[in-house]
Specification:
Rossmann fold, seven-stranded mixed β-sheet, Ribose-phosphate pyrophosphokinase, ribose phosphate diphosphokinase activity, about 30% helix, EC 2.7.6.1, about 30% strand, five-stranded parallel β-sheet, ATP binding, alpha/beta
């Protein structure tokens, strides 16, 4: 059984070429030669421009918008590497699309996150490397090893430096809902500050109402911590409630994945949030960037994880 290939090769599809190039640069490697094109009827064509026989191949592709095109690009690239006799194939998926469809909420609903896991495995991937799955149990949907990186070790140091001169008792980390408490608690422990929770009621998809603020945020700088921001309605409503109901002095926010669909950018621009920090697991076009959005690179942590996977070393130290 081949545990890993003879060398590391990093390839990019069309969703996150910049992240892939930065990962390769961090590893001191050239980006692999490949081309992913779309025919006039929408079909995807992949051409691998170099030998991968016996190599440890890492294909970098977030399955963000357009989700289905990017997912198919990933699957077809994996199949191409498999048929080219790669030693081992790792799907590096900074953002895993369909992750919110991880269970049946109503009758006759699919579990699309499981279907996508099956597709990646059947395509020929030997391993998956991803970051901040919407539900951590999605790791169990795969029949292959999954290394699940976290965004908190990248986001927390940024705010630690930003508020380095501030008294710890004047800062509070806020979880936007009960489901994000574990993530927010880790964030608060890293900064050695207190924790608060927004109690909300979700009426339907992408619509929620803030009911109460659990914890003391009055007069403090509040940092909202979440895994992803989609339409930004929950985030902006929560930020407004933290100011008006909780009496916080300022509100900041951070998240691993900036999906930013629909009216998200307009809502963020008009919100009371002073700064929103995102990781670049999902690219934001330069023309859509806002002054209050700060992007941090995930390339260094993915590069270290790839090196550890290749050398058969544990990835868990990256969580510390």
């Amino acid at each position: 059984m081949n545990l890993h290939g003879k060398d590391i090769k990093i390839f990019a599809a069309n969703a996150t070429p910049r992240v892939a190039a930065q990962i390769a640069r961090n590893l001191g490697l050239p980006l692999g030669k490949s081309e992913v094109r779309h025919f006039s009827d929408g079909e995807i064509s992949v051409n691998i421009g170099e030998s991968v026989r016996g190599s440890d191949v890492f294909v970098v592709q977030s399955t963000c918008r357009p989700v289905n095109d990017n997912l198919m690009e990933l699957l077809i690239m994996i199949d191409a590497f498999k048929r080219a006799s790669a030693g081992r194939i790792t799907a590096v998926v900074p953002y895993y699309g369909y992750a919110r469809q991880d269970r049946k909420v109503k009758a006759r609903e699919p579990i699309s996150a499981k279907l996508c896991a099956n597709l990646i495995s059947v395509a020929g991937a030997d391993r998956v490397l991803t970051m901040d799955l919407h539900a951590s149990q999605i790791q169990g949907f795969f029949d292959i090893p999954v290394d699940h990186l976290q965004g908190v070790p990248l986001l927390a140091p940024y705010f630690g430096s930003r508020f380095s001169g501030e008294p710890r008792e004047e800062i509070v980390v806020v979880s936007p809902d009960l489901g994000s408490v574990a993530r927010a608690r880790k964030f608060a422990e890293r900064l050695d500050v207190s924790l608060a929770i927004v109690d909300k009621r979700r009426q339907r998809a992408n619509v929620s109402e803030v009911m109460n603020i659990i914890g003391d945020v009055r007069g403090k700088k509040a940092i909202i911590v979440d895994d992803m921001i989609d339409t930004a309605g929950t985030l902006c409503n929560g930020a407004q409630a933290i100011l008006e109901k909780g009496g916080a002095s300022e509100v900041y926010a951070c998240a691993t994945h900036g999906v930013l669909s629909g009216p998200a950018l307009e809502r963020i621009e008009q919100s009371c949030i002073k700064e929103l920090v995102l990781l670049d697991t999902i690219p934001i076009p330069p023309e859509k960037m806002l002054d209050k959005i700060t992007m941090l690179s995930v390339a260094p942590v993915f590069a270290e994880a790839i090196e550890r996977i290749y050398e058969d070393k544990p990835v868990s130290p990256l969580f510390v």
